[in-house]
Design brief:
Length: 482
Amino acid sequence: MRPPLRPFEGARRLSGHPVPHPFAARLWRTAGAIVFIGGLLSGCDSDSPTSEAGIIMDPTGAIEMEVGDALSVEATRYNSSNNVSFSSSNPAVASVLPSGSSGDRFNAVIQAHAVGTATITGFVSTLATATLDVTVVAAPSGQLPTGVHTLPLTEPEALLLLNAAGGGFAGLTGTYLAAFAGTPGFAVLDLLTNQVLHQPAGLTGGPFFGVAAASHGTRGPTDPAAFVAFGLNGFVLQNYHTGAFKPPVQHPNRTYDAFPAGGTVATDVISFVQPGLGAGFIPFNGSIYAPTSEMLDIPDTEGEMVSAYLYDDAPGARVLILARAVDSGLFLGQRGGGAPTRVLSLGLDGRKIRCTPSSAGGVLCGVTMFGNDRVALVRWDGMAAPTLAGFASAGDGPVDLDLHALPGGNIALVTSGFNNHLISEVELTPGGGVVSNMTRAAPAGCVNPGHVIYVRDTAGLKVVGTCYGSDNYFIDPSRFSR
């Protein structure tokens, strides 16, 4: 019979793995047990080993962790020269990795990833085992769990926030829904619990570079909606209609970007970019989202089209199109209009354009310049040619970015250095002037952060980003967390 649970006092924070609250407030354990082939040794807390091989693990029994927590566990072997190994019955919920050894003592780290249960086992070859039952619960009060988290995808790329706080999208319900793209497709997760809520199987067209989404209406459970996963061999369009997801439809031709009009998923149009063909549009047609034949193209001599920002979903809306080149150009076009015209020259190897409404009027846009390690800052009223406000420095190889309005009218911008694993956050005036620029290392365990977004939870602003080189994602407090 298992001893009654009692508070476990030995848990501690691990460097690089911040947790919302001290472990001692919520971790529990049972008395230690030395486990032998024949079962439990009589007198669980005895320090007197027998001649049989054995193992004792501390903590043992049962504990509770929150998503994002990390816990150190120690296993001590007896009467054996075999190393202690560790395993998890459900690594998607709680994984375990060795972290060193000293004599007969072997250490490991348990990382809580998603709500659920898992059993951690320490074993000395086939001679003896000890187990620890882990229950992972959500972080309290709607606070996103900081740290590095697992994904059901490899080589993750761009991500998109689907709801700000609570509610749903396309019949999916959760507190902070986000869509991630990677291999072999895309997945929708609740960032609060790391639970996978939607992941269509059998997608072709990858590798995928990102995912866009749109909803006609209030993003309620019955409102029509759509996902667009785009990549090397085209884009996949999956509609949600009459309360159900429809089969994904593959559309050919390499697609470098897709993004909802106005930067909000509550829109009736998604724009997309196919180099050599043009910028296209996927409007809501009264029943579903479906691409039209319209393409706004630029001459091949101007470079390779990689990104676009459509001002809103109104008929005849203007669009800014980015072409990457040695001298990357920004082009102004219009739905239903003629060929786009070059309006700005921004620098080497442009990658993404993203914008947010500004209290100065119109929108303030950021354009990542991968080859110059900087972000171009652009003002645009949605009609006339945009103007260049200046530049903000970034890490080595910025790919994606996000902008977020701050109290008082200033604007926060976040981007990442893919090659040197840095996160840069810039405070901007409504007109695009740089107030301050701070850079820090990506959280430990994140390699090649390529895409980042802002998410506001009940504790403040967070940065959420994907880690291409380590197949995971991170949640980190923003410098503008309040």
